[in-house]
Write a structure and sequence with these properties.
alpha/beta, Nucleotidyltransferase, domain 5, 5-stranded mixed beta sheet
Length: 291
């Protein structure tokens, strides 16, 4: 075996390729730090029909396609292949599904998985995009594929505690409502706007089994979410987070202080003047002067 064939076999092992797929050639550009790995399906070998899994003879090949793969050292790595078409007795002529990438994707499965790890570990898409050397459109494509994969894995399992919240993602108060499984830390569904109708739609998409199993729904005090939950999940408890409860309580305490201060000032008593933050602060944190 010559050295080129040996190197090709090494790449086949690194890529996890099995028959009939094999590495036919490599193109390395040192200056551009760019590596292209060319893959072919061995001539004469049969490939499975992706609809019935029957081994079928190769018919011809489509135009060459490329997929971004994980970097090799510091080199951007591209996989290139003219995808074979097969002739199935039952389903006719079909394009083969390649094992290293999902249908219609411009990235390999391994690269998409790595990109999602980077995106979830970074503080912003901007920093992730720079590290991965991707455009905004490419990042959105990878995110879309990840969501589709996640949706296909959804099942009818029991859910006990859900949360519904809104996120302001653009200027001028553009909101998105998010339904989450609190116990498993996963997003169940997302919809634009934060109206009662949108919240009801999110909750209605749950299966009957899941709706019956939900014991509590966590949310802020937005009336639309409260009304939607009371309508769709009447037996579930509505739980408000401590932050919003404390905020509303603080506003109520301050409103009472203002009214009392006005009444006391009329009678010449200014004891409540300048005490706003005293009433809103934990007594354990008061200064000696405040006490």
């Amino acid at each position: 075996m010559d050295i080129q064939s040996a190197v090709n076999q090494d790449y086949e092992q690194l890529l996890g390729l099995t028959k009939p797929w094999r590495v036919s050639d490599r193109e390395l550009d040192i200056e551009a730090k760019h590596l292209v790995i060319k893959i072919i399906a061995k001539k004469g070998e049969k490939l499975p029909c992706h609809q019935c899994d029957t081994p079928c003879a190769q018919e011809d090949h489509r135009e060459e396609r490329s997929w971004r793969h994980l970097d090799t050292m510091q080199f951007t790595t591209i996989i290139s292949c003219r995808i074979p078409r097969i002739r199935c007795a039952k389903h006719g002529i079909l394009t083969t599904i390649v094992p290293w990438a999902n249908k219609y994707s411009r990235f390999t499965k391994l690269f998409e998985a790595f990109a999602i790890d980077v995106l979830t570990s970074s503080k912003s898409i901007t920093s992730s995009r720079a590290l991965l050397r991707l455009s905004w459109d490419q990042v959105h494509e990878i995110q879309k594929h990840a969501v589709i994969r996640g949706m296909t894995r959804k099942n009818d399992d029991t859910i006990r505690h859900v949360g519904i919240d809104e996120k302001n993602f653009l200027k001028r108060y553009s909101y998105t409502s998010i339904l989450t499984d609190i116990d498993k830390g996963r997003v169940l569904d997302v919809a634009q706007e934060r109206t009662q109708e949108v919240a009801m739609t999110l909750l209605t998409k749950l299966s009957d089994k899941q709706k019956e199993s939900i014991e509590a729904v966590a949310m802020d005090m937005w009336p639309a979410f409260m009304n939607a939950t009371a309508t769709i999940l009447p037996s579930a408890d509505i739980v408000h987070d401590k932050y919003h409860v404390a905020a509303y309580l603080g506003k109520a305490v301050d409103a009472v202080r203002k009214k009392e201060s006005v009444l006391m000032m009329k009678s010449g008593n200014s004891d409540l003047k300048g005490t706003k933050y005293l009433w809103l602060t934990n007594p354990d944190n008061w200064s000696k002067e405040a006490k």
